[in-house]
Amino acid sequence: MKRLIVLSPLVILLIICFFILIYLLSNKDPSKPPSALINKDIPIFESKSLYETDKIIKSQDFKNKKVLINFFASWCLPCKVEHPLFFEISENYPDLFMLGFNHKDKSEDAKNYLSEDGNPYDFVGVDSDGMIALEFGVFGLPETFLINEKGKIIYKFMGPLTKEIIKNEIIPLL
Amino acid sequence: MKLYHSCRKIAFVNLFVFISFFEVFADGTLDEKVKNLTLELRCMTCQNQSIYDSEADFSKDIKKIVRTKFEEGKSEKEIKLFLVERYGEYILFKPLLNYKNWFLWSFPFIFLMFGLFFIGLKIRKN
């Protein structure tokens, strides 16, 4: 027993080292820091529709709804890569509200982009000055968020989505 | 009468010079404040560059918001908290002084004390 007490600092040190090792080997990408907004309420915003400027969407409109928010732009090439995947999501999950934010883009370019590649979003909001993106802690396009029925951000992905990411990370949350 | 007009002209010129100087000075301090704060912020889309040094789109937006917040009368601490709430502590080069960080920095010393205590105990018993 006494020996165990004397050895306990060494055992604690080994346990700590083990957890540090697991953390270091967990393939964390330092260029993709975790979002500070995970498990926090959706930021307050108001955005005009890209198509009908008198239509406005507010953060308060999402009560009791699961929402997928995607920040995109016509000038963003990785956005083009992930774009077709949103059609699959909206087809398989019709109850999920898909909100696209057109970020720092020309309205005409955005409309052309969505008419050429199709529009998977239920609402396309305009974020011409990037202030909505700033509220969401966005620092590069594309970025995708998932909001639960309580209005909390439960998931964030930086960069273009892939089929694997949707299957392994997004679908289990829907 | 002539003297009165000359004095009035001089007074106007002086007032104009004073106001211009004050505006330049005020802008100068605002620029300094923006510079000092943005030097402490990390450009999240660049490699080891501060927001101040970077010309990336993200950095330009942050510089703009920092300036706006200063103009609104917000303090440096308030602006930092505003950014940390959205981008996390990663945006700061210097971490915040909070309980979590205090524990992180003091933990090795606590652990050392713990170890020394046990070594002392062992030596005393021997």
Concise summary:
The complex is a heterodimer of chains A (174) and B (126). Chain A has helices at residues 2-24, 77-92, 107-117, 131-135, 163-170; strands at 46-48, 56-58, 67-72, 97-103, 123-127, 143-147, 153-158.
CA-atom Rg of chain B in angstroms: 26 Å
CATH class of chain A: Alpha Beta
User: CATH H-level name of the largest domain in chain B... which superfamily?
Assistant: Cytochrome C biogenesis protein
Q: Can you tell me the residue ranges of chain B where pLDDT is under 50 for at least 5 consecutive residues?
A: none
Number of domains of chain A: 1
* CATH third-level topology of the largest domain in chain B: Helicase, Ruva Protein, domain 3
Indicate the overall shape of chain B: elongated
Unreliable residue runs of chain A: none
State the order of secondary-structure elements of chain B, H for helix, E for strand: HHHH
Helix/strand/pairing class of chain B, anyone?
mainly alpha
CATH architecture tag of chain A? 3-Layer(aba) Sandwich
Q: How large a portion of the residues of chain A is in β-strands, by DSSP E? A: 15-25%
CATH level-two architecture of the largest domain in chain B: Orthogonal Bundle
Total beta strand runs of chain A: 7
Enumerate the strands of the largest sheet of chain A in spatial order, edge to edge or round the barrel: 5-4-3-6-7
**Mind telling me the CATH superfamily name of chain A?**
Glutaredoxin
Structural class of chain A: alpha/beta
Number of strands of chain B: 0
Roughly what is the average pLDDT of chain B, rounded to an integer? 83
Overall tally of domains of chain B? 2
What sequence of helices (H) and strands (E) makes up the elements of chain A?
HEEEHEHEHEEH
